[in-house]
Amino acid sequence: MISITQILYSIIFFSLTLNNTIHALSQKTQPYPVSYVLSCGASSHGTDENGRRWKSDARFLTNSSNSRTATAQYQDPSLPSTTPYMTARIFTSNSSYKFSVSPKQRFWIRLHFYPAPYSSLDPSNASFAVFANGFTLLNNFSASTTAQALTQAYIIREFSIVPSQSGDLSITFSPSTQHKGAYAFANGIEVIPMPDIFNAASLVGFSDQSVDVHSSSLQTMLRLNVGGQYVPPNKDSGLTRTWYNDSPYLFGAAFGVTSQVDNNTKIEYSRDVKEDIAPLNVYSTARSMGPDPKINENYNLTWVFQVDAKFTYVVRFHFCEYVMTKINQRVFDIFVNNQTAQQSADVIAWAGSSGVPVYKDYAIYASDRDGDDKLWVALHPSVSMRPEYYDSILNGLEIFKLNDTTRNLAGPDPVPSAMMLEAEARAEAAAKSYTFSDSNIAARVIGGVVGGVVGCAIVVGAAFIYVTKMKSKDNSSQCSSTTWLTLNGYSHTSTGKSTVSGRSNASSHLSSLAAGRCRHFSLSEIRHGTEDFSESKVIGVGGFGKVYEGLIDGGTKVAVKRSNPSSEQGVHEFETEIEMLSRLRHRHLVSLIGYCEEDGEMILVYDYMANGTLREHLYKTKKPALSWKQRLEICIGAARGLHYLHTGARYTIIHRDVKTTNILLDDKWVAKVSDFGLSLTGPTLNQTHVSTKVKGSFGYLDPEYFRRQQLTEKSDVYSFGVVLFEVLCARPALNASLPKEQVSLADWAMHCQKRGILEEIIDPQLKGHINPECLKKFTDTAEKCLSDHGIDRPSMGDVLWNLEFALQLGKNPEEGNVVSENKYLRDTYPTHGALLNIDEESELVLSEEIDDPDNPDTVFSQIVNQRGR
Ligand SMILES: *[C@@H]1O[C@H](CO)[C@@H](O)[C@H](O)[C@H]1NC(C)=O
Ligand SMILES: *[C@@H]1O[C@H](CO)[C@@H](O)[C@H](O)[C@H]1NC(C)=O
Ligand SMILES: *[C@@H]1O[C@H](CO)[C@@H](O)[C@H](O)[C@H]1NC(C)=O
Ligand SMILES: *[C@@H]1O[C@H](CO)[C@@H](O)[C@H](O)[C@H]1NC(C)=O
Ligand SMILES: *[C@@H]1O[C@H](CO)[C@@H](O)[C@H](O)[C@H]1NC(C)=O
Ligand SMILES: *[C@@H]1O[C@H](CO)[C@@H](O)[C@H](O)[C@H]1NC(C)=O
Ligand SMILES: *[C@@H]1O[C@H](CO)[C@@H](O)[C@H](O)[C@H]1NC(C)=O
Ligand SMILES: *[C@@H]1O[C@H](CO)[C@@H](O)[C@H](O)[C@H]1NC(C)=O
Predict the structure, then answer these.
(1) 44 near 56, Cβ under 8 Å?
(2) Can you give the pTM of this predicted structure?
């Protein structure tokens, strides 16, 4: 079951897992003795993709006769490596591991779970508790429910356990007694000694009270490198922690700006803060509010986290000031759960000088009232202190859960959303019929055509109609069931006189989150805005229906997507789409403004994109040719949007239909990724129509997707590679009128690239206008995207990085966009109170330090986004 599920709609993996994480331990820098890194159920040692060795767990079992080893039946494409996830140890009765540890040292326990079918066992029958030295780490735990709710393929739990005194550590797996047929399992266990880095934390709201963290065991809820990149375990300072990027947790549209220490400033640990606390990577990046004091005064830089109620949490803030140098330059208040945790925080005052890390711990109790399963963290300038700059800063954040008085750390499993479960069930039905009844024919036809050099576009079209027809015979709902995966925009909070939904049909099923963020339009408003769906207002047609240009609020242009009554999109898909879109927001995604569900109409209202699709500016057009810089900037914008879909949202979202008609341009030429065709070119070979059923368009399809029928975000990377060549060569991805070897742009461009003759096929309008280094970087990147195997393709983040680099290479030195950090400071922080006019579109490059683009640790061009809002 899981396997099918994962194949066809493994679109969303919780952001914590998607970084292709592995927990590698850099042995040479490991200063703490006796770590245990065990691959459960493995007969011999194995190595993960970072080269970290995982040993067999067998000799640490206290009784080898009450457990057995098993191998997962299915390898989810999002697993970072087979070790330790593909083998497991299954426990059908209480069983323990015993380790000898230092009696005086705390240690991390990390548990790895991959809920998959193991021999004949159903993953949903795994329900168990885990105890360690008298602490309950997990209870009534279902790894499959948790994975489903978080849309993760695998789960890692980290705990910090107080010193054992006896020198023994026993970890017990205990199958649930409440669930008939329950079993326990584990894929990986790590026991890593650690220094005691916890002390007292002041209790928020009680100025004179503190919580003694020292004597408690903890669960790590979250660990973020704020404003910085993912830090894998082997880049941590010896404690093999993983630090994630913070952007998925930012609340609201105010993202602030990120920055990075410039290469002249050295960050140095102090006596109080050593590398145990956090690695230098964490302290050398930060998020702050932005250069505009007026804006900063009016918003809070806010993050929101999911926690379990009825526990005490310690929130650890990591700071390091590398821009300001004096006291009272940047002073701010810290709020935790809307209460003041710290007034007038001044990092320089705490640290003594610039470039010195500090951290602060605050404790808060999450009671059991409504909304207490969320933990809010917010920063706001301390205006009353009259600091020189109205701003705030944060470099890192960790949240730890403390054991309660019964030595318990276990919370309830997260609950998968009902809507998601329903959508999954439908997708699964479709997947079954697709995989089992039609797959042979479909795979052969499609594989034959797409896998090799594309023979003829007409044949492709015919094949698809055939497949589609066959599918429709089975079950009328199945074709549409993938529609909900189509994520093409985001919502933003309503503006003006919006009617926040509460009465519509859809809203009764929508979560309060979606309903609150998404505006509900009445049908009469929509009819009025589109002149009663006048044909003269149609700007696009697709399998789903028509797209109209509309006006709302007496003048704001919008795109109105009206579902065809005969369209296969059902009410549930429609609601699911709203639900999902309302969770996504990004400057480079087309935004959903609202919806209308009335009289059987299903209408979505999006931002209007004045400049249409990218394709219509590339070829077969009367429009003026885009300059190389414009093209590059559009590619960078689209890459940002996709990167956000892959990693930035709470879920990983695979677009599945990346192409130049799904990259739209607004009036300021900002690229926005979308999924509805605003300007389709005729019904002859209606690719978009096809694509609503079997996602993906010919010419852009990842060959590996067909070979293995496994969808990963690397399929989008492949399609994006085709887009890059399309932009460079200004020709369609498929052009059946060309000689056979040239029909497919992907194949032809790769052929020319390999033979070093790519320059011959680039857009004549560009010839002589591209800096050769810039061109090389661009084509190398596109080539890597088109690698045959997903694993060889870069991530969207790497693609973005390389394109930004290419843009820098293409820049004239005189253009002067590259400024030093001090100049940035002078220019963007004028005397306090002054309002600065930075062009919304401008992006300042703070510092560049470019080494090896393949090395994730490399410091690279730090882009300051548009203003903080
Ligand atoms: C080991 O487990 C088996 C099966 O649960 C049990 O019969 C046996 O008594 C156990 N041995 C010890 C030494 O606890
Ligand atoms: C297994 O452990 C649990 C929790 O400690 C306990 O409640 C249960 O009785 C144990 N089962 C057996 C068969 O010992
Ligand atoms: C254990 O979890 C299941 C669902 O996973 C739930 O139905 C049940 O109520 C839970 N039991 C307890 C005692 O929490
Ligand atoms: C799950 O456990 C129940 C109770 O023992 C059993 O009837 C059922 O067959 C199990 N499911 C699978 C797929 O093994
Ligand atoms: C800092 O930048 C300069 C040039 O801007 C470079 O020569 C130097 O190697 C860099 N230092 C480090 C430590 O990377
Ligand atoms: C904090 O305030 C926000 C609104 O600003 C609210 O939605 C949230 O529930 C509050 N959180 C707590 C824990 O009170
Ligand atoms: C910032 O958050 C605090 C605490 O929730 C709240 O009192 C304050 O009004 C917020 N300020 C702004 C500008 O939103
Ligand atoms: C956690 O457990 C320890 C050991 O029982 C206890 O001393 C401590 O008070 C507990 N922590 C909290 C916050 O209750």
Answers:
(1) yes
(2) 0.60
